Amino acid sequence: SAMAAASTEPKVAASEAHGDAETEVQKWLECAECRFPLVRAEELIAERCTVRTDVAWCYELDVFDQQVSCYSATNAHDHRFDVVRVDAPSALTRSILQEGEATAEFSWFPGFAWSMAHCANCYCHLGWAFEAETAQEEPDPASKPEVAFFGLVLTKMREHQRLEEEVTQLFEQRAARGAAAARPRSGATSPRRELRDGLISLVQTIQQTFRHFPLDEAMLTSLDETQRMLTRHRRIP
Q1: What is the pLDDT of residues 194-235, one digit of tens each?
Q2: In this structure, are residues 206 and 223 in contact, taking their beta carbons and an 8 Å threshold?
Q3: pTM score, two decimals?
Q4: DSSP-H helix ranges across the chain
């Protein structure tokens, strides 16, 4: 497997640890960077999708003992990625964030435009969000196309099993942190906060500027690390 499977306790052990009541153990693909649960096994899209055959090809891979279609794809900078398709509606905002305007340039999946996809917890780059191409020359911003699916890089994730209540708690904690960060603060904004917010905005602008090009992996990693660092310390006065 392209992903390292983390060792977990069996379902029986989980039940014993929580008394007589049986606790459900869920299979998740987690962020390799922060171990935040991203995608449930049942959210993986097993069906094959048409690809641009000069830069991508499809193969089968066992993930959590089920066969899913994976795609080996090369970007404009000749970097190859192995990705799986993931159901977007369930993962979007809960654990994966979509960012930037979509572009169809050098898309691996004909008929779909791509934008960036990040971990909602640590903002690490995970892959790309794909939405159906629009035929309008000037699309209406009010009717932005919905993300159809994510294409997530296998090496950016790890297989793991977690108790259902543990996953729920992690999602609630992330939501609480997001609400606290967005809450207006009394008093004037400190110079440090203004500088930090300005740097975050600058990084986002750079990502937007290069949205029409699948970025070089080194540049992409550098931008991700910078934004994660700034976002992580954003709550500091």
Answers
A1: 666 667 666 666 655 555 455 566 666 676 667 666 655 544
A2: yes
A3: 0.69
A4: 11-17, 88-91, 164-182, 191-209, 217-232
